[in-house]
């Protein structure tokens, strides 16, 4: 086998296999898959978005991060929305305004980092020409793709109070309506062909002019003119001066193995905290899915989220105590408090988002784990360009004075955690998920299910899942009623979904190294593609 690709979108996974089978490495495949994901899942990710990319380079042994977070435009001010704030959503932490200013339209957009991020991956790690990696996505956008169930679900499902629905989202600009509304004025149905020739041409322009053209060239001029004319806070200087951040991953240990994930403002420290707390307990001795198992994992989740809520921020704007959060002493302290029966949550919820992910491993031993996103999509499309911009302004706190308050140039905190678990000096598990702060729970349980319960990757991402940030324990319909009753008897508030495979629980994706090959697991909660390159 030449490699394996795992991601939520089967047709995007096919693109990765095509790249591997024609001589590309894992990093080539990951970049090509990411651009294809923008076509088949256009409100989960796109050219106007952001992301975080963990890599392991088998040739050099380097394990690194390439982060391309979106950043607030230079026209924002800390108190500009404070007087008009209507609070935040109870469950997901979105800022609320009567006019949806942080959710929809030009005022919701942050300076996008996606194109610069994947260009940096290409410059440092890829072997195929840049244009070859964009070509499959350009072809798909031109020829059209069949609307999938997960795209249709996102645009038609009922939203929480205060959040606009999909029809309103795609109707924000005429250019967005022209692409994402069926000629009959409705959302495309599952299976209907959806074409986007404008996006195809934009891919071709970026292939020819390079990422530079998106930020400083003719294409950038077109983007900035539209943003400036319509009240965006993002300026030409913000685009021209955007910079990717490269660093080492944050590191911890679980069951004697090294775990690496992304640094702040990503949530790798929170994931590793959860693992290091649970390292103090014999989790595998508890029945999977039992009340005792769920109780313990939920308490560890809530403890780590308590630190996340207090300390996680953009390290360019705040002192984030990463070493303290990742220390064994901190994990031991939380573990001891769990043993005394404390439920450690503070009742807060982190912000959700709509996101996607890709895991790739190749025959040379290279590995990639990449999460990228639009937030949930602003509904803004610059005429003629075909792509939707992010709406990440909704994830800032509109009230000044907190670590996540609005500030020019700041990146918002994110639940993204592209992660690797290392064994024998190389990645053993490559893991990631889309889905806001629920990503952390999904990735944690995928790791626990394999390491502590001996599951295969498919089993690990399929079995019933829980989520807890410090208030209720959220469970899927497949959790038995007697388990829910036992948890309530323990004092927990329990919220059980009516859906057996609830996409709200995020969609975990795993590649596991197995001898000289690999096994992959793609979450059945929405889409799911595992593709092998022969």
How does this model look, in words?
The chain has about 525 residues and is an alpha+beta fold. It folds into two domains: about 25-245 and about 370-395, no CATH class; about 250-350 and about 435-490, Gamma-glutamyltranspeptidase, large (L) subunit, C-terminal domain (Serum Albumin, Chain A, Domain 1), CATH 1.10.246. The chain contains 18 helices and 18 strands. The strands form four sheets. The chain has a seven-stranded antiparallel sheet with strand order 6-3-2-10-9-1-18, with helices on one face. A six-stranded antiparallel sheet has the order 7-8-11-12-16-17. A hairpin with a 4-residue loop joins strand 9 (about 355-360) and strand 10. Helix 1 runs antiparallel to helix 2, helix 2 (about 25-40) packs parallel to helix 4 and helix 13 (about 290-310) crosses helix 18. About 55% of the residues are buried.
Q: What's the gist of this structure?
A:
The protein has 534 residues and is of the alpha+beta class. Helices cover 34% and strands 17% of the residues.
Detail the topology: elements first, then pairings.
Layout: E1 3-7, H1 10-21, H2 26-40, E2 50-57, E3 62-68, H3 114-125, H4 130-143, E4 145-146, H5 149-156, H6 166-170, H7 174-180, E5 193-194, H8 197-209, H9 212-215, H10 218-229, H11 236-240, E6 245-247, E7 250-254, E8 257-261, H12 268-278, H13 291-311, H14 322-325, H15 328-339, E9 354-362, E10 367-375, E11 419-423, E12 426-432, H16 438-451, H17 457-462, E13 466-467, E14 473-475, H18 481-489, E15 494-496, E16 509-514, E17 517-522, E18 529-533
Parallel strand pairs: 14-15
Antiparallel strand pairs: 1-9, 1-18, 2-3, 2-10, 3-6, 4-5, 7-8, 8-11, 9-10, 11-12, 12-16, 13-14, 16-17
Helix pairs in contact: 1-2, 2-4, 4-8, 12-13, 12-15, 12-16, 13-18
């Amino acid at each position: 086998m030449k490699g394996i690709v795992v991601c939520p979108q089967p047709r995007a996974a096919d693109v990765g296999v095509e790249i591997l089978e024609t001589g590309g490495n894992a990093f080539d495949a990951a970049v090509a898959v990411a651009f294809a994901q923008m076509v088949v899942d256009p409100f989960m990710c796109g050219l106007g978005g952001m992301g975080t990319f963990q890599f392991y380079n088998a040739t050099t042994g380097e394990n690194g991060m390439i982060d391309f977070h979106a950043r607030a435009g230079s026209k924002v001010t800390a108190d500009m929305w404070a007087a008009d704030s209507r609070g935040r959503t109870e469950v997901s932490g979105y800022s609320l305004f009567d006019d949806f200013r942080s959710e929809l339209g030009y005022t919701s957009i942050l300076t996008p980092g996606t194109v610069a991020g994947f260009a940096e991956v290409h410059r440092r790690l890829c072997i195929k020409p840049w244009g070859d990696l964009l070509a499959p996505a350009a072809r798909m956008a031109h020829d059209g793709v069949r609307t999938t169930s997960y795209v249709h679900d996102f645009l038609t499902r009922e939203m929480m109070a205060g959040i606009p629905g999909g029809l309103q989202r795609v109707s924000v600009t005429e250019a967005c309506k022209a692409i994402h509304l069926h000629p009959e004025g409705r959302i495309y149905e599952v299976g209907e062909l959806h074409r986007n020739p404008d996006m195809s041409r934009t891919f071709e322009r970026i292939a020819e002019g390079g990422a530079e053209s998106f930020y400083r060239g003719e294409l950038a001029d077109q983007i900035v003119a539209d943003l400036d004319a319509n009240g965006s806070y993002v300026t030409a200087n913000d685009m021209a001066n955007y910079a990717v951040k490269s660093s080492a991953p944050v590191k911890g240990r679980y069951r004697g193995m090294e775990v690496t994930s992304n640094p702040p403002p990503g949530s790798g420290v929170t994931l590793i905290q959860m693992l290091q707390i649970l390292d103090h307990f014999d989790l595998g001795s508890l029945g999977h899915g039992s009340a005792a198992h769920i109780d313990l994992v939920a308490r560890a989740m809530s403890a780590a989220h308590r630190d996340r809520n207090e300390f996680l921020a953009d390290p360019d704007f705040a002192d984030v105590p990463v070493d303290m959060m990742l220390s064994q002493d901190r994990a031991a302290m939380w573990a001891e408090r769990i043993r005394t029966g404390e439920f450690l949550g503070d009742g807060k919820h982190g912000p959700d988002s709509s996101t996607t992910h890709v895991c790739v491993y190749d025959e040379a031993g290279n590995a990639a784990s990449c999460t990228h996103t639009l937030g949930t999509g602003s509904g803004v499309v610059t005429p003629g360009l075909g792509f939707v911009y992010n709406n990440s302004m909704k994830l800032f706190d509109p009230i000044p004075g907190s670590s996540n308050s609005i500030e020019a140039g700041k990146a918002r905190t994110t639940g993204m955690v592209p992660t690797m678990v290392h064994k024998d000096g190389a990645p053993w598990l490559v893991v990631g998920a889309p889905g806001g702060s629920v990503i952390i729970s999904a990735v944690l349980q995928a790791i626990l299910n394999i390491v502590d319960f001996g599951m295969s990757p498919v089993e690990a991402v399929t079995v019933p899942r829980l989520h807890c940030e410090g208030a209720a324990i959220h469970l899927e319909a497949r959790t038995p009623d007697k388990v829910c009753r036992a948890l309530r008897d323990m004092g927990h508030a329990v919220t059980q979904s009516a859906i057996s495979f609830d996409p709200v629980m995020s969609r975990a994706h795993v590649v596991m190294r197995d001898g000289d090959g690999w096994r992959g697991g793609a979450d059945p909660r929405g889409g799911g593609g595992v593709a092998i390159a022969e």
